[in-house]
Each structure stands twice: as C-alpha cells, then as structure tokens.
Input
Amino acid sequence: MREEKALFIIFGGTGDLAQRKLYPALFNLYRRGHIQKSFAVIGTARRPWTDEHYREVVADSIRGSVDADFYTEAMVENFADHFYYQSHNVNDTEHYMILKKLAQQLDDEYEIGGNRVFYLAMSPRFFGTIAEHLKTQKLVTDHGYNRVVVEKPFGRDLATATELNQSIEKYFPADSIFRIDHYLGKVMIQNITAIRFGNSIFRNLWNNRYIDNIQITLSESLGVEERACYYETAGALRDMVQNHILQIVSLLTMNAPVSFNDQDLRQEKISALKSLKVYTPDEVAHNFVRGQYGPGEGVHAYRDEDNIADDSAIETFVAGKLEVENMNFAGVPVYIRTGKRLATKATRIDVIFKKMPTNIFPGVALTNNVLSIDVDPNEEITLYINDKDYDTGFKMKQLPLAYRNQNRDCPEAYEKLLHDLLRGDATNFTHWEEVKYSWQFVDAIRSAWDMETPAFPNYESGSMGPQAADELLARDGKQWFFDPTKTN
Ligand code: NAD
Output
C-alpha cells in the first residue's frame, strides 16, 4: 500500500461537513493504510478550541459514523493525535502568519515533504480571501503539491461562478483546484463509465439507434429540514440539477474518452455538457416543470416550515426533458426529476432501450429492455429482459437480472474522493468548463421561471411530484419506469 503524505488545512474545521464527512473519510483512509504516519490535520475556525477538545470532537465524529467492527479505540486515539486546532478568522492576515508557522512545524515533525491540501469547508464567499492569503502569506510550499478543495455551491449562476473561479485561479493554477461534487464519488456513479466502456454490448447499444430515452431520478423523502436559509436562496434547480444531475447526464451521454485519465474523460464530459440544448423561455415552459410540496401525512407544507417565507416561490421539485445535441444522442430525450418530500429516498438511473422492431410472438406484449442503476440507498444494477414464462405454452415475462453490492465496507464517496485528491487524480472532480456549461443551461431555465410567479404548492408530500411531471413523458408516449408509489 502506498502511503500518501499530506498536511491538510481545513477551513471550517468545526462545521457540519467536516464533522459528518471529512473526519470519518480521513479516518477510513487511515485504517486502510492510505495515510499512516506522515500526515497531519490543522482544523481552523473562529471558535477558541484547544487541540484536546478538537481531538475529542474528531474522535466522536468517527465513533458516530464508522461501523464499530472496523476500528479499535486505540486506532481512533492514534488517528486523532494527528489533529491540531488553530482559532482563525479568515479575514485576519496575522492569523495566516500563525497558521504558516504551525504548518511548517507539523511538516517537519511528520516528515510530510511540503504536500498541502487546503480544504475550504465553509461559505464560498470566503474562498477568494482565503486563496489570496494562502498565496500572499506564503502558506503554499515550493517543494510539494498545493491543492485547494472547494465545495458546492459553486456560484449561483454563471456570472457569480465565473467571479468565484477567477478569485481562486488568480492565486492557484487551474489544475490545483479540486471542485467536489460528492455524487462523483459514489460507487454506482463511477460504475457508469465501467458499464459503458468496459462492455461491448453496452458500447454498441449506447446511442440513439438503440436507446429510446434515459430517466434520472434523485428523490428525497425528507423536507427542507435545517437548510431553510440556504434553500430559500437556491431551490432544487440550483441545489441538485446544476451539479449532481448534469454530472450524471454528462457521464451517460459523453462520447468514449481516448483513455481513462482525468484529462481525456473530462474533455468528453465538457463536450457532452456543451451539447445540451439551452432552452428559450417558451421551450422552458414546454420542457420543464417546477413544484413545491404542500402538506402530507403528519408533515407541513414547505411554506409552513421554519424560516420559510409564507409566499415562497422557491421550487422543491424539478422535472425536465433535456436534449443532448451530439451525434450519438440527438433525438434521445433525457428526463430528469428531483425533489423533496417525495414518496421515497432514491437515486436511480433507467436507460430504456427501444422496443423490438417487430414482434413475432402472437398475443404477447414485449416490454422494453431497461438497464437500471440504483445509486442510493441500494447499490444495484438490473437488466430487464423478456424471458419465456416457465410454463407450458409460450408466454413471456419481464425478467430482472440483478446484482446488488453487498460489501459493507465499501469506501464512501468522500473517502474515495479524498484518496483521488491525494493521488492528484482529478477524474472525479468537476472541471471549470463543466461548471460553466452547466450554469449556462440552468440559467436559461431560472431566468424564464423568474418571469412568472408559480402557483405553489402543487404537489402533495409523499407523492412523486406534480402531475405535470408525468404529463411531460405521457406527451411523448412514455412514462417513468421507476414508480415507488406503485406496489408490485
Ligand atoms: P457550517 O456552517 O456547519 O460550518 C462553517 C464553518 O466555517 C464553521 O467551522 C465556522 O466556524 C467557520 N467560519 C464561518 N465564518 C468564519 C470566519 N469568518 N472565519 C473563520 N471561520 C469561519 O457549514 P457546513 O455545513 O460545514 O458547510 C461548509 C461548506 O460546505 C459550505 O459551502 C456548504 O455549502 C458546503 N457543503 C456542505 C455540505 C454538508 O453536508 N454540510 C454538503 C455539501 C456542501
């Protein structure tokens, strides 16, 4: 096992993301041996914590989220000993000088060799000032790598994203900026490339001659919960479509990369996103549906949730029909939907193949072949084929050929992404050009929607969204393949 050497400086070290995701992910890298002796973590935030308190918080975050079968208390304590806390105000230049000293000291003590990861786990409004101070106060080293990790949201439209990007790229080269979209760390999302480019049956069928339509569902059963303040400024379109859903669309519709490396793969994803048809306001009205949840069994309407305006026009649901205007996918509708307070929590992709050109079986209805990829909460691949019923005569039935990942100790998204980051592999991070084309597509929808006040609420909590989301497909003679409201 190759040991990766790095000093992590986590801005926002007391925050929710750090505690729920980053510390458990780092611990999992540690217990698997990817990081061992030569690593240290400096957590910074405004609160005046001691190292001891910080290490207790880190240890608790591991106890609270990693399966107890996978560690001993001694491992947790040894791991937490690598953590140091530095109270820090991101706008205060002097604080960076103190941070620099501590970083140098830990680099020597742990023999890290100058590799630095600056993880910006805080509001994007601070990214520019942090990047500037890291450079001007010389926290970047000249004898190792210096990588900056930024979280979503990356801007709220193309203009703000461009500004944000420039504020970081002014101080860090483009290839040292790692934009996290944690969906790209999910095993089944990574599997899309494996399925498409590792199997000749799918390679040959993956185009507009054989695929009828693609359906992507990211449904949540929870409501807005404690994210009200952020959500009121974002909505489902910015929160889920601009990043996660369009990333999935790009992986499903890109052309084959020349080789499986970050440059070639991201080049093809960029082309796929560039091929998305940007809609006019009329086309938005025709191809996109927005919704907001009303009350349901034992739950409030969105507008009655804490910290939500009584007349909020923010959408908690989006469905849409996308057109990818490239050689392979022109004419294949890509239907997407995402929402809160839906019937189930699931991330799911259904690739619907075309019907047989003719049916030689009298009196038998042949169904479409479907490749379903369950991303969350199950990790499952199912290929639906038509199969002879095991009975006398010749009836047919739909047969699901399924594989479910049962590995309890499969690395979680953040663990995989942090490992990629340490190895300098940017394949599963979002390139700026991807961000750019995604915002271009989303901005057209947002600006069309902003011209009109929607009639909200328009779907019941516990349903699969407004009826218009079903009509979007019905109009094309299709329906959602994944329907958790139906009991089979
Ligand atoms: P949070 O509010 O829990 O934490 C923010 C952190 O920033 C805290 O440690 C706080 O002390 C620190 N901070 C704020 N102002 C500061 C200042 N002036 N100087 C120094 N430190 C300061 O937020 P979070 O949920 O951890 O999210 C962090 C970032 O990650 C946000 O950009 C968020 O959008 C993104 N994100 C979070 C999640 C998640 O699951 N929490 C998921 C995806 C993206």
Summary: The mean pLDDT is 96. The pocket of nicotinamide-adenine-dinucleotide is lined by residues 12-18, 45-47, 88-90, 121-124, 151-153 (CB under 6 Å). DSSP finds 14 helices and 14 strands in the chain.
